[in-house]
Amino acid sequence: MIRFVPYPDLDGIPNIVVDGARHADSLITLSHWPHSGTPAALREDLSAQIAFRYLDSPDWRVDADAVSNNHFDEDGLASIYALVDPDGAQQRRDLVVDVAAAGDFGKFRSRDAARISIAISAFTDGDRSPLDPAMFALPYEQYAAAMYEEMLPRVEELLDHPDRFRELWADEDAHLAVSEAGLRDHSVTLDEVPDIDLAVVTVPEGWATRQVHRFTQPRSQTVHPMAVHNATERFRVLLVEGRRYELQFRYESWVQYVSRRPLPRVDLTPLAEELTADEASGHWAFDGAGLIAPSLHLDGASESSIPPETFRARLETFLRDAPGAWDPYDDE
Length: 332
What we know:
By secondary structure, this protein is α/β, with parallel strands linked by helices. It has two domains: about 5-90 and about 125-160, no CATH class; about 170-320. It contains eleven helices and twelve strands. The chain has helices spanning about 45-55, 75-85, 85-90, 95-105, 110-125, 140-150, 155-160, 165-185, 225-230, 270-280, 310-320, and strands spanning about 5, 15-20, 25-30, 65-70, 190-195, 200, 210-215, 215-220, 235-240, 245-250, 285, 295-300. The chain has a six-stranded mixed beta sheet with strand order 5-6-9-10-12-11. Strands 1-4-2-3 form a four-stranded parallel beta sheet. A hairpin with an 8-residue loop joins strand 11 (about 285) and strand 12 (about 295-300). The two termini are about 30 Å apart.
């Protein structure tokens, strides 16, 4: 039986790393992370899917005593659960993968998966978590290990009885429902530009900004990203609210996504500089193509002086002409 061992404690222990970076003593890595070294025969979009494929593939089994990950999130939790309790995970396989997708990609098939993902994120929120507050003062590696030790015994209850965790997911689920309704009645509009893999989401002015979670990290957004990501396959998302604009690269374009090959991310720094030169207040910034979910956004001002149609036209032109600046794929 494989057991969970904290990443900092892996030295000298034959191990499997899931959903993260290989350790020096890893016998195999089961991760969609960039350049993870995961065998090509096992690759899938999500690390949880890779873990299940490993379980399905006796020829790839290794004699490992431990499984670990260098960070905590839903896909990592799903992947470790699959290896430490393969029988239980196989019985719940579709939901386990769906929870991982809701956490990493902001996409889900069942509402329970979305709610479970939101609840897991709430466990990591020091302001709301029912866990010991002292955990959140730990150095990150110790914190991540403590989260796995706390959450692995809770996985089956989360999967089988999500209603027991309603107080952790209800508020964000309500925001998700409002966002989905806005997309259905077209008060929130979605316009796709397939040749540059772009979705333009226009939100009515005055919509309240509310807390959402991505990768267990709290963020603020007017329209819930799960509603947007379920409504479009585009991996570049431009959010427009009046004269507030933000271009986001979705997480799928950071990892080794295999069901289809996303257009490479581009470096938006030159565009940010050009926009700043024309901006009456504030300045435009780009987080960097190598961050997990970077954005182009305005700093120092709440609204842009650039008209929406001008901003969108300049963005589309830049996306069409700019060279790729990120390649997460291992050589075959």
